[in-house]
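[Meeting: bench + compute handoff]

Bench side (C.D.) handed over the final construct sequence. Compute side (W.E.) agreed to return the predicted structure before the next meeting so the bench team could plan truncations. Sequence as handed over:
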Amino acid sequence: MLGAIQEPEENIKPTKSKEIKMVTEDIKDLGSEEELSSFLDLGEDLNDIPDLTTVPDEDYELRMVTLERRPAKKKGPFLFTEFEILGQPDTKIVRHVLMLFTDQDSERQKKNRKRALKYFYKCFNLPSSGPVVFADYIGNTGWATLTEETDPVYGKQNRIARFRAPED
């Protein structure tokens, strides 16, 4: 069987040529060359798989697939999130950045960044205070208003215009 671990005979140290012979014999057990050539036959024409697309402006239910705190760049540290649109398997992943507030921010900017975090946390059922272990919330779902935009580099993309709280 391919991949099976075979115990060497007592007091005999396997050699490279013996190991190669064992693997070759395992491959022969899989079948003829003709059978092996169809081993990767996917059973369908990949040209029938639709390209990734976007959705029109509307409210959609999203599932969080990535939530990471990333270090400061030019504008400071941020949360990087990725979402899949539920019920839309052929759509692109929706990416969103939430800037974290810093001591250098004006009071207005700090409050705006805190509000954005508040709406995100509420939407995806994260606790509003205390530490948050991101891995515990991957897979959570929430609703957001999406817009469709054309990016000069990536083409059509969906962007999050607004997170919707459960009571919205």
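W.E. noted at the follow-up: Residues 21 and 67 are 47 Å apart (CA to CA). C.D. will use this when planning the next construct.
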